[in-house]
Amino acid sequence: MIIRHDRSDKESIVNASDWPGVTNFFRGSGSATLIAPDWLLTAAHVARFIPTNIQLSVELAGKRYPIARTISCPFYEPKWEQDEDNPDTVDLAVVQLAMPVEDVVPFKLYDRFDEVGQEVILLGWGECGNGLHGARGADHTLRRATNQIHEVDDYWIKYRFEAPPEGTVLEGVCAGGDSGGPALLWHDGQFKIAGVSSWQDHGDRPLGTYGCIEHYARVSKFVDWIRETCGLKD
Which residues in the chain show pLDDT less than 70? Predict the structure, then answer.
């Protein structure tokens, strides 16, 4: 996570035990969120690199859970990530675990279409840095940032990285390794997943610098596919 330059990096570091339903792949190069005892939600461009010839596992609440299979949204275009001039694709995937997770409450999905203007918490294990200089490397520590959704469309929820004094108290965006992580929106007394970290439009500036536009796959538009695939109730 990359945050505003007038906040200490220490302010963004969180204890992973406080977010037991959020996990990572590949030693911190991709995240996922528990949405059912045996299902994770992540980005399709992350899930496609999970190997099928060896069994990987993820850690949740101090225990390891083997990955059984991954399912990318049928509307995901694998070649899309090589062409950000045409960014419309459904960058969502679900990952089934070989056994149900114990003692962790799954996150619910945000299924309303009123995301614009709402503040979200972003979580991930990727690179850290600040809005002046961008990413400065990763130490595989879980970090958070906040931002306010300023635009949505049929595929994405979007945030602009505002320089101080604008923006939220811990204004930030994602960096390398944060893909697949959640945007959590507070609703009905709990955090719900409104988006999944996908890509960033930073123009000719370094990744994660002020003015970039963060894109998260919009969960509310594809909640029916997620629920049907994972056998979830409304």
Answer: 28, 81-86
74: CATH: 2.40.10.10
Residue found by looking up tokens 């997943």 in the block: 193
Nearest C-alpha neighbor of 176 from the set 71, 60, 30: 30
Tokens of 194: 């409104």
- The 3-state DSSP class for residue 229 equals helix
Give the model's pLDDT for residue 27: 73
Residues 84 and 113 in one domain: no
The reported pTM is 0.95
CA angle 219, 182, 167 (to 5 degrees): 100
Q: What are phi and psi of 46, to 5 degrees?
A: -85, -50
Decide if 146 contacts 120 (C-beta within 8 A).
Answer: yes
Residues 43, 30: Cα–Cα separation, whole Å: 8
Encode pLDDT of 17-31 as tens digits. Answer: 999 999 999 776 799
Q: Which structural domain, as residue segments, surrounds residue 44?
A: 21-103+223-230
